[in-house]
Amino acid sequence: MNSLEGVVVQIQGLSSSAGDISRLHVILKQAEESLRSESTRLSPILNQLDPSNHSLGYLYILEACTSAPVSKEQAAMLVPYIARFISYCAPEQIRLAPEKFIAVCKRFKDQVMLLGTPMRGVAPLQAAVRKLQNSSEHLTTLHPEFLLLCLLAKCYKTGLSILEEDIFEVDQPRDLFLYCYYGGMICIGQKHFRKALELLHNVVTAPMSSINAIAVEAYKKYILVSLIHNGQFSTSLPKYTSSAAQRNLKNHCQPYIELANSYSTGKIAELEQYVRTNGEKFESDNNLGLVKQAVSSMYKRNIQRLTQTYLTLSLQDIANTVQLNSPKEAEMHVLQMIQDGEIFATINQKDGMVRFLEDPEQYKSCEMIERIDSSIQRIMSLSRKLTTMEEQMSCDPQYLAKAGRERQRFDFDDFDTVPQKFNI
Amino acid sequence: MASSSTSSSGLTFKLHPLVIVNISDHYTRVKSQMQQPSSNSNSNSSSNSNSNSNDSVYGCVIGVQRGRTVEIFNSFELLYDESTHSLDRTFLEKKQELYKKVFPHFYILGWYSTGTDAHESDMLIHKALMDINESPVYVLLNPSINHAQKDLPVTIYESEMHVIDGNPQLIFVRSSYTIETVEAERISVDHVAHLKPSDGGSAATQLAAHLTGIHSAIKMLNSRIRVLHHYLLAMQKGDIPCENALLRQVSSLLRRLPAIESEKFQDDFLMEYNDTLLITYLAMFTNCSSTMNELVDKFNTAYDRHSRRGGRTAF
Q1: Is A401 within 8 Å of A421 (Cβ atoms)?
Q2: Where does the PCI domain lie (chain A) (predicted)?
Q3: Residue A243 within a domain
Q4: Long-range contacts of B37-43 (CB under 8 A, 24+ apart)
Q5: For B219, phi and psi rounded to 5 degrees?
Q6: Lower Cβ count inside 10 Å, N or C end of chain B?
Q7: CATH assignment of the domain containing A347
Q8: pLDDT tens for each residue of B239-251
Q9: Residue A249 domain-assigned (yes or no)
Q10: Which of B277, B287, B301 sits opposite A399 (nearest CB)?
Q11: Alpha helix locations (H) across A89-172?
Q12: A316 has pLDDT over 80
């Protein structure tokens, strides 16, 4: 008990300046074992400390508190403490012990899920993510946890705000996979299919030394979203995909690839037949809803194909070509597509004719100038980042070793003294 | 001492750009061929010494004089003889003969030199030439680069007999001149001014050169308008007395502007602006894509465990 009191006094005393805090950090690291052994008696201690001034000390004690498995009642008691801590803690102090902070937040998430109220964890975790990040381009381990809570709590909009940022720095590869996968699911929930496609594409093409389950699941969703958004799907993956993915992904997603093939024929009846026969497979992957959306997007594709052939068409003809039941349904579909901006057309209700128009954008307006200008700025900063990355890669010893080796094998005609291997 | 009064002879001088280019080229060549820097390197100070510094170059200008108009077409270099403080006479006459054969109408109109100001010693050379041409001209090029100066650093001097302290003396007086160009000269000056790269055929360099030209023109227009604006503001505040003639000119200039406010102009202008922006965007895109491609290739070489052993196939 004495050591505990001593630790508390230290925390209260040494939390003012940066130099003191590093000393405190050392002391706390040494006291870790003793703290953990007394985990049951730590809760009242927390009341003596202030989360915003004594963040580091509070963090250590909290981490020791939660290290043991907790029951539901204990969880109910701890959750408000942790939530309060996260909202009040000082970012500079907790960045000194990021693993502890991450551990605390993860346990917080587990407790919140144990209590069955994921909504309570959304706001604190969002604050936690912001405090842990070094910059808005930094992906921490807390990002996927936060997105998972958003998914479970069904508050997709909060998740979207985090997804808006571009990521350039990643702590752990697993974080990236989970982040993009959950992010893709959130975007699907919000019907932002373009962004979902982008995120799922990242999972599928991320560097991986061997195939992992997240990538397989993501690939299944990727196929479906690609059908919904683009109306087509190509099985060839870009060349920056890892070879592990290129070889193995397709084998695990066979029913989806066949679905895509049947989609490309354009016949709705066949597609629906296929979905019916393989329903359980899609159901077991929790993808049945998405599959149904893909089927209904088939109508949109067919109508879009019509715009390329015809200038005007009657609603009845549209209904017949697209295999809809009535001109009324065709009118609903066309109206929806015009509102979403997917086609440009006018419906003449008197004689039931639809006239397809060209894209009215003349690129003559000032708003277009601003759009292009902002795109140019973005791409310039991206170009700078890419150049630095490429330079770093050129200096990478692994790359130099392999490049040197390959070169020696085939250069018969220059006899300069290139070493066999770069021993760096 | 060279006077800064203007000439009263009533002659109009027309100078061709070829002469200016020749003089500057002569000076540049001589300067760059000198192995050591000259011992008296601060030669820009107007010294009264008779020996001209090593930095000046000399030559003759030739052209046509019709009535009151003197048109200077061409020039050639001459050697300055330090010992006699005069130009090499034999060489000059030989060159004159040769030029006469090709250009029968051209006469020796005078001579040129480089420096900041006309000196006393120049008068000796000037007098020596007076037997070829009774009133020679002296073209002086100032080779020092002054970024603030907007006009050409070329001055034309004539000699006049003035009575100073009871003695009639020949002194240099400044004359005004205009630049006269033939079509061929205009094209070549344009070329030199834009310093087009040697393979100026590709579209990218042409576009870049075109846009650079427009950019510098607009920059100059902007700075001039700013000067006018400052001036008008000062006039409004009362710092400077109102000058009605200037105000009338400014208002007539402004009244010409609304002619470009029409809607059709806006449309065309915005469309062209957008086109240029799109070209920039596309160029950046291509740049990024190629960098990305390189990066991916390098990454695949470095980290992919089962990278292709392909490379170049055996011949």
Answers
A1: yes
A2: 192-361
A3: yes
A4: B43/B115
A5: -65, -45
A6: C
A7: 1.10.10.10
A8: 878 788 888 988 8
A9: yes
A10: B301
A11: 91-94, 98-115, 119-132, 142-153, 156-163
A12: yes
Q: Are residues A315 and A302 in the same domain?
A: no
Residue B236 CA, distance from chain mean position: 37
Query: What is the ipTM metric for this complex?
Result: 0.73
Radius of gyration of chain B (CA): 29
* Contact status, residue A336 vs residue A297, Cβ threshold 8 Å: no
In angstroms, the separation between the Cα of residue B32 and the nearest Cα of chain A is 39
A194 found inside a domain: yes
**Where in the sequence is the domain holding A409, given as residue range(s)?**
368-414
Give the count of domains, chain A.
4
Kindly state whether residue A419 falls inside one of the protein's structural domains: no
Whether B146 contacts B153, CB under 8 Å: yes
For residue A11, what are its two tokens? 């925390």
Q: Say whether both A232 and A160 belong to one domain.
A: no
Alpha-carbon distance A239 to nearest alpha carbon in chain B (angstroms) = 8
Spatial separation of the C-alpha atoms in residues A88 and A95, rounded to whole Å: 14
Q: Which residue is closest to A362 within chain B, CA to CA?
A: B271
Last residue of a domain, one of A138, A153, A171: A171
Range ranked top by mean pLDDT from A345-359, B128-142, B212-226 = B212-226
**To which residue do tokens 């980042």 refer?**
A385
Say whether both A294 and A380 belong to one domain: no
Q: Are residues A287 and A334 in the same domain?
A: no
Strand order, beta sheet including B58-66: B167-175, B154-164, B137-141, B107-114, B58-66, B69-78, B12-15, B177-179
Kindly report, residue by residue over A232-265, the tens digit of the pLDDT: 888 888 878 888 888 888 888 888 888 888 888 8
Nearest to B183 by CA among B65, B17, B13, B21: B17
Are B288 and A363 within 8 A, CB to CB? no
Query: Highest mean pLDDT range out of A14-23, A29-38, B220-229?
Result: B220-229
Interface of B with A in 258-297 (CB under 8 A): 267, 270-271, 273-274, 277-278, 280-281, 284-285, 287-288, 291-292, 294-296
Which CA distances in Å does A93 have to A58, A168, A204, A246, B259? 10, 24, 37, 44, 65
